[in-house]
Amino acid sequence: MITKLLLVLKKWALPILILYALALTTVSLVHLGGMPSLGSSFDDKIFHFIAYFLFTVLVYNYSRTKKGTYIILISAICVIIYGIIIEVLQHVLTSYRTLDVFDALANTLGVTFATLIIKFRNKLKLN
After folding, report:
1. Which residue of 56, 60, 75, 77 lies most exposed, with the fewest beta carbons within 10 A?
2. The CA-based dihedral angle spanning residues 78, 52, 49, 76, taken in that order and rounded to the nearest 10 degrees
3. Which pTM value belongs to this model?
4. Are 115 and 54 in contact (CB under 8 A)?
5. What is the number of alpha carbons within 13 Å of residue 51 lying toward its C-beta?
6. Of 42, 27, 15, nearest to 83 (Cα)?
7. What is the pLDDT along the chain (127 residues), one digit of tens a residue?
8. What is the dihedral of CA 35, 39, 44, 47, to 10 degrees?
9. Alpha helices in the chain (DSSP H)
């Protein structure tokens, strides 16, 4: 059962990744009426952290179907660069969004946390 699920996930890794990237790009560049409140003063940063955590997992999930070394590191770097590009595009392309260094930091923390969990999971899997 788990083997079949893993094969399905492997087969659909690229389409899922593309859809998520398109959704993340769209949500990052359009004017949103309002985000749901989590009850803290830094809800936006929590959303950034979660979004980029998931994005890192999806990029890694797709990347591991390919051969190569340093897949985790390359996946993380690609997602961080993507996040920086989105922040710059928010500043350049929109009048209702701004480049926010703290958003980029929240993105990077999400990427870092996902990377650490993936590395830890892989080490447990090897033992």
Report:
1. 77
2. -30
3. 0.84
4. no
5. 24
6. 27
7. 556 665 667 778 899 999 999 999 999 988 776 666 666 666 788 899 999 999 999 998 888 777 767 888 999 999 999 999 999 999 998 887 888 899 999 999 999 999 999 888 877 766 5
8. -80
9. 2-11, 13-29, 43-63, 71-93, 101-126
- The residue among 84, 122, 120 whose CA lies nearest residue 104 is 84
Residue pair 63/13 in contact by the 8 Å Cβ criterion? no
Which amino acid type is present at position 68?
G
Q: Which two tokens stand for residue 86?
A: 């989105």
Show me where the domains of the chain are located: 2-29+40-126
- Tell how far CA 17 is from the center of its chain: 10
Q: Which tokens in the block code for residue 33?
A: 């009426």
Q: In one letter, which amino acid is 82?
A: Y
